[in-house]
């Protein structure tokens, strides 16, 4: 099938040329991450306890009822803004702890989603991990039971996700989902879903995998703070809808993310 072949090409292709577009950094073994932070964490354990005790859990992707075919231009919010730059012209992550992602994780997710992608159905997953040495590390990809359409995905039996995280003493660092045939962007539904993650953990990320988008096969996004976060917090609308555009942008690529070739991860497929 043509879609499957295209997905396979994306999975097998190198990601070096794409990473620079989203200011994602490759982490080298000799590189040390010691960027100044706005809010220092006195120790890892207290941070973990605070996050684990947060209630309720993030709202996971929801299927919108009576969906009709919608073009990306209607579903999408304004295009993501650029990463914030520091005075030396480098991407600024001074407000966030670094977040490390295993290099092979996104490729593995595309492989697990390949059957759905071939049927033009979305697939979603949860990124779980821990805080070590003042940096977050994604060490588990959880694929929950789910129901999907071409434009959305709904998790089922969400208690299973929380049970897996609790058993491993992990907590949610973000989420990942596919756009099987659309371009790489965050829809209004995606933004509201991600708000529930980011309000708990400012470093939380949303990864969009768009294998048919030859220009941007994937993106690693978060809400711009404070303006983007404020727009979503004040919005009570559901489903696909436009948002009032703030002075800058509602969301953008992350500058605190590192692709770590040495970071191992587990996959828990609950489907």
From TrEMBL:
<feature type="domain" description="MPN">
    <location>
        <begin position="99"/>
        <end position="227"/>
    </location>
</feature>
<dbReference type="Pfam" id="PF01398">
    <property type="entry name" value="JAB"/>
</dbReference>
<dbReference type="InterPro" id="IPR044098">
    <property type="entry name" value="STAMBP/STALP-like_MPN"/>
</dbReference>
<dbReference type="InterPro" id="IPR037518">
    <property type="entry name" value="MPN"/>
</dbReference>
<dbReference type="InterPro" id="IPR000555">
    <property type="entry name" value="JAMM/MPN+_dom"/>
</dbReference>
<keyword id="KW-0482">Metalloprotease</keyword>
<keyword id="KW-0479">Metal-binding</keyword>
<keyword id="KW-0378">Hydrolase</keyword>
<feature type="region of interest" description="Disordered">
    <location>
        <begin position="72"/>
        <end position="92"/>
    </location>
</feature>
<protein>
    <submittedName>
        <fullName>AMSH-like ubiquitin thioesterase 3</fullName>
    </submittedName>
</protein>
<keyword id="KW-0862">Zinc</keyword>
<keyword id="KW-0833">Ubl conjugation pathway</keyword>
<keyword id="KW-0645">Protease</keyword>
<dbReference type="GO" id="GO:0006508">
    <property type="term" value="P:proteolysis"/>
</dbReference>
<comment type="similarity">
    <text>Belongs to the peptidase M67C family.</text>
</comment>
<dbReference type="GO" id="GO:0008237">
    <property type="term" value="F:metallopeptidase activity"/>
</dbReference>
<dbReference type="GO" id="GO:0046872">
    <property type="term" value="F:metal ion binding"/>
</dbReference>
């Amino acid at each position: 099938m043509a879609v499957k072949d295209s997905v396979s090409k994306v999975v097998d292709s190198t990601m070096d040329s794409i990473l620079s577009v989203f200011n994602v950094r490759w982490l080298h073994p000799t590189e040390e991450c010691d960027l100044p932070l706005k809010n220092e964490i006195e120790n890892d354990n207290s941070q973990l306890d605070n996050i684990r005790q947060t209630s309720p859990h993030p709202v996971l992707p929801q299927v919108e009822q009576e969906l009709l075919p919608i073009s990306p231009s209607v579903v999408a919010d304004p295009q993501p803004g650029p990463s914030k730059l520091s005075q030396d012209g480098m991407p600024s992550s001074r407000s966030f702890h670094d977040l490390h992602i295993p290099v092979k994780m996104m490729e593995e997710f595309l492989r697990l989603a390949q059957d759905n992608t071939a049927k033009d159905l979305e697939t979603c997953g949860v990124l779980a991990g821990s805080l070590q040495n003042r940096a977050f590390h994604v060490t588990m990809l959880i694929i929950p039971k789910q129901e999907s359409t071409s434009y959305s995905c709904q998790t089922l039996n969400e208690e299973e996700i929380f049970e897996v995280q609790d058993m491993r003493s992990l907590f949610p660092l973000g989420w990942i989902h596919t756009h099987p045939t659309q371009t790489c962007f965050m829809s209004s539904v995606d933004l509201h879903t991600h708000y529930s993650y980011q309000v708990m953990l400012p470093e939380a990320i949303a990864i969009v995998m768009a294998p048919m988008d030859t220009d941007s096969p994937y993106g690693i996004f978060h809400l711009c703070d404070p303006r983007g976060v404020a727009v979503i917090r004040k919005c009570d609308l559901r489903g696909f809808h436009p948002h009032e555009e703030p002075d800058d942008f509602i969301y953008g690529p992350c500058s605190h993310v590192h692709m770590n070739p040495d970071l191992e991860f587990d996959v828990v497929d609950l489907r």
